[in-house]
Amino acid sequence: MSKKESELKHLEKEMNVCIRCAYCFEECPVIKEMQWDTDGARGKLILSYGLLTGDLQPSKYIADKLFCCTFCRDCLERCPSKVSILEIITAARAHLINEGYASDTHKHVIHNINTTGNIYGDTEVISPEQDGKTPLFVGCQYLSRPNKTKKYLKILEKLGIEPLVKKEICCGFPMKVLGFEKELKIHEEKFQKAFPYKEAITFCPTCTVFLKEGHGINAKHVLQVIAEKTPAAQLGMKVTYHDPCDFSRGLKIIDEPRNILKKFGVEVVEMKQSKGQSRCCGGGGGILMSDQNLSGTIAKKRIQQAIETGVETLITSCPTCEQVLKKAATEIGESNGKTIAVRSIEDIIWEGVKNL
Amino acid sequence: MKIDTNRLKNIVGDANFIDDVADRYVYASDASVHHHMPACIVRPSTTKEVQQILRYANQNKIPVVPRGAGSGMSGHTVPLDGGIVLDMKQMNRILDIRPEDVLCRVEPGVINDELNCILKPYSFFFPPTPSSGMICTIGGMIGTNASGNRSVKYGATRDAIMGMKVVLANGDLVTLGSNTRVDSSGYQLARLMVGSEGTLGVVVEATLQISPLPKYRAMGIANFSILEDAGRMISQTIAAGIVPSMLELMDKVAITAVNNAQNLGLPDVAAIVIFECNGMIKEAVDYEMNRIKEICEKNHGTGVSVSDNLKEMTRIYEGRQKLFPSLSRYGEGLVSTALADDMAVPMSKIADTVKKIHEIAKRNHVVMSAYGHCGAGLIHTKILMDTSKKSQWDDAKKAVHEVYEYVYSIGGTTSGEHGIAISKAPSWKQEKKDSLEMMKAIKKALDPNNILNPHKLMDAPDDWLSATSLRYQVFP
């Protein structure tokens, strides 16, 4: 029995709730590509159980397997026993980190957060501080994309919403998802000082989930706010919409982006898999730090589904999805000639409200 | 046993061979209670590769265990003697769809529901409907003679198999069965392969009989405050000549579990019966549904409701399909284990059996559910217990023994659709004691070196509890 089992010990009963039925295989993007049982959610839970019991000793091989997950939450939807799969995988990752299996990339990201407050280690990142009523949490992804942030802020201004923006630091989700529990504990104190609010508007789907689940903040995604105030417009576009996993499965935000687009006269042609059944873009869960090739392959499958709709534009509402899907669309275009444009929803919303 | 890994890699390619201890640990288990590691896992893509692997294994007397999704509940794919696990999921091509001949040809790694999605535009489907249809493979279904909640009307996998290609233990490829709906041409060897649990050969292609999709479908639910009334209602329905496409029983334990896990909102009663009729003529479907309603009411069924609303039917159907894994959410600290899980009994004995199961559970300090495709005489049970306690396993062992003693006493059989493998073998060997030698002779004739899924069925250990390590941590 391993002495360092604390990260998983409290989840032993939960791991036994899993009866290993394999229903989680159905749409798991990783096992769909890899085709080995080890790569699915059931495989990861069995590895976690092996680490807990000491049947398995930590190894780089096991770490590679456990870090190869997009956290798309599809397994959570499929699991009939409602096993806390992501919690178990996260705890197993923490176990491996404590056993010395953090990769240099993981360490680098955590170092960035500790030293600069953002995942990119960008010392020039500036929060667009402003006075207002409801606290706004911008998040690392948007802070590093100032034009996108400005656009959302201008949209909110047009709709008469005045958010309060202060200097902020990372929400800490990368520490959680990568298993850096000790660092997260220290970071949480810093975060609470920097963002001492009970409610917030957010830009990033993943930050929204973590503000709610990790910090107990009543976070409302900016699209939920905009959906309540969307004016009518006629943009006359036909697009398909990619549901970010943290949106459709994590926050159950499915109708809001579609309602906004509909109000702007944008017709949404659904992909073969959409809404709660949406297929992952391949960019979540830290997989971009573990296996970029696999991430790219998953993203290309999603782009193929988008191309099959026959429309020329894919809209999404997550900066990671946008980045990963744009790269996949470009690569498909370079090899096939036919591809699809990937745009973010704030671009469309801005077109709808800019003349207000 | 020394395995020449380079030889295997040369056959399937480096990317289709794994033997890290982590992979072996994962492939050591399925949905059963058992755990035993293979030496390696190989993933063939062609019949030729399967033949080469088996030739090598046979020459060197290395065990080979074919595996699909690994969702078996009795330890079918747990490699009791180690050796090679053949992961067949990559052989997943649909080779031919011939609606005019009412058949299709597929490779064994094709997933049941994916096949049905592809058959749908042709207005056909593959009728065996296991609850695990979204992930289980045709090869696995053949191995266990799987069925599901439509078996009451359409039968089991064996009833939908016309022929197959099988690689034998020595690597030879044989074609069994035919492409015809009737076949009186000697021994029915294709049928022998169905339910043989990978012990007689490796299926590399199957010819499946498909059925036209019904145009109309309606589903009903009835509540019963007395379990025996529900059992009587089921046997009277079948005896009346009605052919429902589904006739399912759920007892109180099952109702609680599915409500806890799936939030289905089913009523808190002693039993629920879910029934469905389908067909090409609406009036015929309505007639049969009304007949079943009458039988429900005659047997004190309450709240009898019938719906042809697709959304509502899907909600109830999916809840039922996910019942087995949902049982893990019945109560805090109780783990659902697949033991004595799918006996079949004569129709008139369903209610008695369900009642007996609860008595046995109570006497042995475990919780047991009873549910299943009772219209086909099949009852599922699961033993819910604290798997960390050695004493609970002893309790479970006694309960399993008592359940089967009762089942045999009323003319029932060990397994209706999940197969025997390891967990059920000790009891099953008692049930089939006068035909075990016949089965052993068949096995020896086809696999003289005993390499194909060895020590399962008649060759399985006499004590399932000590046959392998358990997948759970158990403390004295």
Give a topology summary.
The complex is a heterodimer of chains A (356) and B (476).
Chain A: H1 6-9, H2 12-17, H3 29-34, H4 41-53, H5 60-66, H6 74-78, H7 85-98, H8 104-116, E1 134-137, H9 140-143, H10 146-158, E2 163-164, H11 173-178, H12 181-194, E3 199-202, H13 205-213, E4 218-221, H14 222-227, E5 237-242, H15 245-251, H16 255-263, E6 266-268, H17 287-290, H18 292-308, E7 313-316, H19 319-336, E8 341-344, H20 345-353
Parallel strand pairs in A: 1-2, 1-3, 3-4, 5-6, 5-7, 7-8
Helix pairs in contact in A: 4-7, 10-20, 13-15, 18-19
Chain B: H1 5-12, E1 17-18, H2 21-26, E2 34-35, E3 40-42, H3 47-59, E4 64-67, E5 84-87, E6 94-98, E7 103-106, H4 112-119, E8 124-125, H5 138-144, H6 151-154, E9 161-167, E10 173-177, H7 189-193, E11 202-209, E12 211-212, E13 216-224, H8 227-239, E14 246-251, H9 252-262, E15 271-279, H10 282-298, E16 302-307, H11 310-321, H12 323-326, E17 335-337, E18 342-344, H13 350-363, E19 367-368, E20 371-372, E21 378-380, E22 383-385, H14 390-409, H15 425-431, H16 436-446, H17 464-467, E23 469-470
Parallel strand pairs in B: 3-5, 4-5
Antiparallel strand pairs in B: 1-3, 2-23, 6-7, 7-11, 8-12, 9-10, 9-11, 13-15, 13-16, 14-15, 14-20, 17-22, 18-21, 19-22
Helix pairs in contact in B: 1-3, 8-10, 8-13, 13-14
